[in-house]
Amino acid sequence: MNNLKSSLAVVVSAGMILLGTPGVSSAAMIGTESLASQSLRADTEARVQSLLSRDDVQQQLVAWGVDVEKAKSRAASMSDQELQRVASTLDQQPAGGDLLVVVGLVFVVLLILELVGVTNIFTKI
User: Fold this and answer.
1) Residues with Cβ < 8 Å from 114, sequence gap 6 or more?
2) 0.70 exceeded by pTM
3) Contact at 8 Å (CB) between 83 and 43?
4) 82, 100, 1: which is closest to 41 by C-alpha?
5) I need a surface site. Which of 44, 67, 81, 104 has the fewest CB within 10 A?
């Protein structure tokens, strides 16, 4: 019985000593490329998610029969290459909309400035 108690005491004390020692951990340098790619992915994902949060985009998705929350979750699970392809497509889209609307708006602004007397664009010299 004493032999069992002493064996048990040795095992328990060895376990207590081993519990007190810290585990081994490894540390490594984070490469600039990996940090930049993670940052680029986060920025691109934020752009896509903000686009999906817009009301007009959500209305169009609903009109096409797409669940908005499902589209957001699928966009979040895209690979880096897919996100880059979506972002490049977004960059190629026209920012101002229809050219005719922009020309008409410029004409209206110039007409108002002419009527107020700020400019002399439409009068002959």
Assistant:
1) 120, 121, 122, 123
2) no
3) no
4) 82
5) 81
Q: Is 26 part of any domain?
A: no
Nearest-5° Cα angle at 48, 44 to 51: 140
Domain span including residue 67: 55-93
**Residue at 59 is within a domain:** yes
CA-based angle 29:40:53, to the nearest 5? 140
Residue 84 lies in a domain: yes
Based on the structure, what is the number of domains in the chain? 1
Give dist(CA 2, CA 49) in Å, integer.
69
Element spanning 33, H or E = helix 32-53
Nearest to 48 by CA among 12, 27, 79: 79
Q: Write out pLDDT tens, residues 73-100.
A: 877 887 888 777 777 777 666 665 666 6
The Cα–Cα gap between 107 and 88 comes to 32
pLDDT exceeds 80 at position 117: no
Query: Which segment of 13-17, 31-35, 105-109, 115-119 scores lowest on mean pLDDT?
Result: 115-119
Comparing C-alpha atoms, which of 93, 86, 2 is closest to residue 48? 86
